[in-house]
């Protein structure tokens, strides 16, 4: 009895061809780099800290009036706490567990300390979550950029400097812009790979 075997191979023309990569124009490449840089800049400040500051600033300063010492003290505490928050949140990171849920933790020299104690980072991925010098650099830049936001806030400026001189006005215009441009260039040149609390998450 003959045994029939199917030795037919799929024809090459039946295999769907992969789409060819369309070359980008110089304008498209420039736009892509600009958008990539903007993506890096969105990681510079925790959005929650900025939102809290912008919400409480008019209340604590009484719309920039600061009638009492208490108002100035509360505004100073708000600026200090927001600055500390920007600094500390730069050391937070996140990862997805086996079920795809996002877990947050704090970077340390030994890896990532996960806030949810029941979940741990896989051993083979511990190295990439370790605390490094670049994290302190990003934390310092985050505080500097927050100071720019505070200097651009009319309520804060009116509270601490209600009648600035002409030199002070020029400084309040030039200094924040200079700090913002410098931090932007440095952050694009040395982007952060962390996706911590208050920072945008990546798909992966």
UniProtKB/TrEMBL annotation:
This protein is called what? Answer: Uncharacterized protein
Question: Has UniProt tagged this entry with the keyword Mitochondrion?
Answer: no
| Cellular compartments per GO CC | cytoplasm; membrane
PANTHER family, alphabetically? PROTEIN DMP3, PROTEIN DMP7
For this UniProt entry, which segments traverse the membrane? Answer: 133-152, 172-190
State the species of origin.
Psophocarpus tetragonolobus
> What keywords appear on the UniProt entry?
Membrane, Transmembrane, Transmembrane helix
InterPro entries associated with the record: DMP
